[in-house]
Amino acid sequence: MKKTGTMILAAAMSAMAFTAAPALAQDRERTSVEAPEYPRGAERRGIEGYAVVEYTVAEDGSVAEATVVEAEPEGVFDRAVIRAIEGWSYAPAAAATAGMQQRFDFNLGG
C-alpha cells in the first residue's frame, strides 16, 4: 500500500504543475525536486489531505525558512512536506526570493 500511495502522490505532483507563487518567484528555475513521502500512519488510517508550505529561496538556490501555512487535516503531513521541500534547490540568483509557496496533495486513490 505504501508504494501505491507514494506513486499516486508523485503522479498528483506531476499533474498539478506546482502551485504558482508570486510573479517574482516564478523566475527562479527549480533544479532539484523531491516528493514528500506519504506518512505511514496517515496511509494506514486512510487519511488524505494537503499541506501548503511557504519558504524562501536563498541566493545560492537552497530552501530556507520553510513553514506550513495551511493544512488539512492539521499536523498530519507537515513533517513530510517540510523534509521534502528542504531538499529542493533552485538556480542561484543575485538575491533571495521570499514568499514562495507550494501545495502538496496527498491522495491514496482508492
UniProtKB/TrEMBL annotation:
Signal sequence coordinates: 1-25
Lineage: Bacteria, Pseudomonadati, Pseudomonadota, Alphaproteobacteria, Maricaulales
Family as reported in the entry's similarity comment: Belongs to the TonB family.
Domain of life: Bacteria
A Gene Ontology biological process term: transmembrane transport
Pfam families attached to this UniProt entry: TonB_C (PF03544)
UniProt GO MF annotations: energy transducer activity
Location of the TonB C-terminal domain: 23-110
NCBIfam families, sorted: tonB_Cterm
Function: Interacts with outer membrane receptor proteins that carry out high-affinity binding and energy dependent uptake into the periplasmic space of specific substrates. It could act to transduce energy from the cytoplasmic membrane to specific energy-requiring processes in the outer membrane, resulting in the release into the periplasm of ligands bound by these outer membrane proteins.
Protein name: Protein TonB
Assembly, per entry: Homodimer. Forms a complex with the accessory proteins ExbB and ExbD.
Annotated compartments: Cell inner membrane
PANTHER family with a match to the protein in the record: PROTEIN TONB, PROTEIN TONB-RELATED
Gene Ontology cellular component list: outer membrane-bounded periplasmic space; plasma membrane protein complex
Membrane protein topology class: Single-pass membrane protein
This protein's UniProt keywords: Cell inner membrane, Cell membrane, Membrane, Protein transport, Repeat, Signal, Signal-anchor, Transmembrane, Transmembrane helix, Transport
